[in-house]
Amino acid sequence: MRGRKHLSGWHIGTAAVLLLAAGLLAVGVWPPAGALSEKDMDAAIQPVIAGREFDIARWEAEAVAAKIAANLRYPAPQLAGLDGSMIVMDYVEQLRQYRRLQQEIEQAYAELPAGALPGEETRQKEAEAEHLRDELRRRQPLVETILERQVARTAGRLGLSTAGVLWPPVLFRLSPPPTHLVVSPRDRIELIYSRDLSPDLSVSERDAMERAIDAKLGVSSLIEDLGGYGAYPPLILEEPALDWIIPTVAHEWIHNYLAFRPLGMRYEASPALKTLNETVASIAGEELGAAVIQDYYPWETPPVPSWKQPPAPPEAGPAVPKEFDFTRFMRETRREAERLLAAGKVSEAEQYMEARRLELLRRGYVIRKLNQAYFAFHGLYATGPGSVDPTGPKMEELRRRSPSLAAFMHTVEWFTAPEDLDRALGGQ
Questions:
Q1: Residues 265-277, buried b or exposed e (16+ Cβ, 10 A)?
Q2: What is the rounded average pLDDT for all residues in the chain?
C-alpha cells in the first residue's frame, strides 16, 4: 500500500455528490473504459472526485516535521527495550477502551427515537471518549518512536542493513490512511485506474461516486479502505492489535527499503511488477513483524508467516471443507467470475459475485461490494484470499528455499520483470 498526509480539502456533501452523479448521467456515457487512455479516464473521473483527493504534499510536510520533533524529544535508545514494550501495551489497551466507548456511543444513538436527545449516561461516555482521544494523541509520538526502534533493531538483527546502516530509517505515523479508488473494466478483472482519496469519505459518498463513475464509463469501480499508506513516512491505521500494527509497519518499511532497489523503483511499471512488489512486502513484512513480536512482546503469539504454513493440498473436486475457509471461498469466487467473464457473460458474473457476497454476509463477513474492481485491487496481494495469481505460491516457495530473510530480500530486490521469479526458482 502507499501514501500519506491528511487532507483538508473542500468537503462535498452526500447530496452534492448525488446531484453530480445525476448531472454526469445527463451528459451521457463516455466510450468504454478499455478504449480510453489514462489521461481521458482522468478527465472523465476528475469531476466526480474533485475536492476529495488525498493531499499528499501536506501530509508529507506535517509527517516529516512530527518525526523530527519526536526523535529530538525521545533520543534514549533504551526505549526499544521491554520498558518501551510496556508503554506500547498500555497505549494499545487504552486504544481498545476508546474503541469500545465509541461503539457504545454509536449504539446508543442508533437506539434513540427520531428527534430524541442522548441521555446523561451517553453524554458522560462522550466526554470520557474525548478525554481518552486527547490522551492517545499526547502519547502517540512516543509509542511510534518505540515501535520504530524495535522494528529497526530487529531488521538489523535479521541482516537487512546496508553496510551496517538500516536504510531508510524506520518511520511511520498512526493515522487514518486515505481511501483508494480502483477501477476495472466490467468484462474482465484488471486494474486500469486508481487514485487516493480523503480518509473521511462516508459510505454514502463512496457509493454515489462509484455509481457516477460506473454509469459514465461503463466500468466496475470501488472505493476501498487501506490498512497503510507506504510513502515516507508511511501512514498506518490505528488498530488496537499489536499483531496487526507491527506487521503493517514492517510491510510498509519493506516498501521503503525496496524503493532504493530495482524492484521498488519499477513499482508502477506494470500491474505484474506491482504484484511482485506487494507480494514481497507481504511475505517479508509478515516475517519481520513476527520477529519483532518475538523479540519485544514474548507474551504475545506472533502470526505465522504464510511461507511457513504448509501448502494447501490440491483441490480434488467440489467437496465442501468441514469448516468454512474464507480464502478458499474467495478464490473459488474469483475463478468462477473470471470463467463467466471470459465467456462474455458479464451480467451473470456480476449476479454471481453479488450472491457470493450475500453468502459471506450470512457467515458474518461484511464486504460492501464484491465486484471486478474488488478482485482487481485485492489481487495485487498474491498471497491474499482475493488472488489466484501464481506469484504468491512461487514467492513463498522462493522464501522457503532461501536460508534467511536477508538472503530472500537480496535476491528479490534485483527483480525487474516477472520472469526473474521463475529464473530464481530454476525455471519453474
A1: ebbeeebebbbbb
A2: 83
**Which residues have a Cβ under 8 Å from the Cβ of 257 and sit 6 or more positions away?**
160, 167, 168, 264, 409, 413
C-alpha cell at 295: 523479540
Angle in degrees, CA 193, 199, 200, rounded to 5: 125
Please report, to the nearest 10 degrees, the dihedral formed by the alpha carbons of residues 112, 113, 114, 119 taken in order. -50
- The grid coordinates of residue 357 equal 457476497
pLDDT per position as a tens digit, 65-97: 888 888 888 876 667 778 899 999 999 999 999
pLDDT bracket for residue 27 (50, 70, 90)? very low
Report the pLDDT value the prediction gives residue 42, as an integer from 0 to 100. Answer: 87
Calculate the alpha carbon distances from 289 to 70, 122, 303 in Å: 22, 38, 8
d(C-alpha 199, C-alpha 380), whole Å: 21
Higher pLDDT, 252 or 3: 252
Alpha-carbon gap, residue 258 to 80, rounded angstroms: 24
Answer whether 49's CB lies under 8 Å from 198's CB. Answer: no
Cβ-based neighbours of 374, under 8 Å, separated by 6 or more:
222, 224, 367, 386
Q: Are 281 and 251 in contact (CB under 8 A)?
A: yes
**How many other β-carbons are positioned within 10 Å of the β-carbon of residue 91?**
22
pTM: 0.69
How many helices and strands in the chain, by DSSP H and E?
Answer: 15, 6
Q: Please determine, for residue 25, whether its predicted confidence score (pLDDT) is greater than 50.
A: no
% helix, strand, coil for the chain, step of 5: 60, 5, 35
Neighbours of 389 (CB within 10 A): 22
The answer to whether residues 22 and 251 touch, using CB atoms and an 8 Å cutoff, is no
Amino acid in the structure at residue 313: P
Write down the residue that cell numbers 480518509 correspond to: 199
